[in-house]
Specification:
Elements lengths: L1 E6 L14 H8 L11 E5 L6 E4 L5 H6 L14 E5 L5 H4 L11 E6 H8 L15 E6 L5 E2 L4 E7 L19 E7 L5 E5 L7 H9 L2 E5 L7 H5 L20 H7 L3 E5 L13 H8 L3 E2 L5 E3 L6
Parallel strand pairs: 3-4, 4-5, 5-6, 10-11, 11-12, 12-13
Antiparallel strand pairs: 1-2, 1-14, 2-3, 7-8, 8-9, 9-10
The protein binds zinc ion (2 copies).
The site of one zinc ion (ZN) has 9 residues, from helix 1.
Length: 304
């Protein structure tokens, strides 16, 4: 499988436009050893295939596609994007759909819950419904593997989450937030994309144990971190993000996971963004990487 990390930050990116915290100031000024990051976005493709699937649809998608030549059109009115897989309805994971509104037929894979949140009662959605078939929905049912093109298959697996902020009045559903497991049917590695994980469950443990390539929620280092920059902000868990540090933190789980592991969806307040920080050193010591924009992973394992 081929993986391209087009974006690796949480909502708002790094630096965030309205943030002057130590990290955002430092990366703007170039006084901190840290890399700027756009909002989390993956693109994946099967070995030897030309089509790509987007995991998520980041608000930065337009510039992210421009920066990734394999995703450029090969002729007039063309795209190698074979489909878009949505794991939740948060705006930083779906707004990019509206950057793809130029009359290109699109296929969107999502749970019924995430799909309805987008397509129902949303006047702006009509820009993606200008002709029949502009956007086709493929329903993801929890735990059911679905085939994509090129021998790939995906499964949506419920992880602790929440409805998006703009739909917070709706009762929570297990379909609000899913991890995406992707594999090549002919064998080869299993990839898990889980940028939003609200805590530990037996399924989360299993995903970490079986992933050969794991892209996991690296949003916050501590539970109260956002409150340090934005007083009154909710704790990490209330935003469906499991903090990394301390006893019971996600780094304990990730340290023991057997595959290659990256943190993604890193918030601009997270001290691991500072490459010289002790927090970054503990992540490194756990054998875990921090995903960066532009990262390319190409596995060439033969199937069993
Ligand atoms: Zn997010
Ligand atoms: Zn900041």
């Amino acid at each position: 499988v081929k993986v391209r990390v087009l974006g690796s930050a949480a909502g708002g990116g790094f630096p965030q436009w309205n943030c002057g915290c130590r990290l955002c100031l430092g990366v703007r000024a170039g006084t901190l050893r840290a890399r700027a990051r756009t909002q989390a976005q993956l693109a994946v493709s099967a070995r030897g295939a030309a089509g790509w699937y987007l995991l998520g649809a980041s608000p930065d998608l337009g510039s992210q596609l421009a920066a990734c030549p394999p995703l450029h059109p090969r002729g007039p009115r063309d795209t190698p994007i074979a489909g878009i897989v949505l794991g939740n309805g948060d705006l930083d994971h779906v707004l990019g759909l509206f950057a793809l509104r130029e009359s290109q037929p699109l296929v969107v894979w999502a749970t019924e819950r995430v799909w309805r949140g987008l397509a129902e009662g949303n006047a702006i959605w009509r820009t993606l419904e200008r002709f029949p078939g502009q956007v086709r929905w493929e329903r993801l049912v929890l735990g059911e593997e679905r085939p994509l093109a090129d021998g790939l298959a995906i499964t949506a697996l419920a992880v602790p989450g929440k409805p998006p902020l703009h739909l917070a009045s709706a009762p929570p559903s297990a379909e609000d937030t899913v991890a995406i497991r992707l594999r090549e049917q002919a064998g080869g590695p299993t990839l898990v994309y889980a940028p939003t994980v609200g805590g530990r469950t037996p399924l989360v443990e299993r995903l970490a144990a079986e992933a050969d390539l794991l892209f996991f929620d690296g949003t916050f280092w501590t539970s109260g971190e956002l409150g340090g920059t934005a007083p009154g902000a909710p704790r990490a868990e209330a935003m469906a993000h499991w903090p990394l540090s301390g006893t019971g933190g996600s780094l304990e789980l990730l340290e023991r996971a057997p595959g290659r592991r990256w943190l993604i969806h890193v918030n601009n307040t997270n001290p691991i963004l500072d490459e010289d920080s002790p927090e970054r050193a503990s992540v490194r010591a756990a054998g875990v990487h921090v995903a960066e924009d532009g990262l390319a992973v190409d596995t060439d394992e033969e199937g069993p």
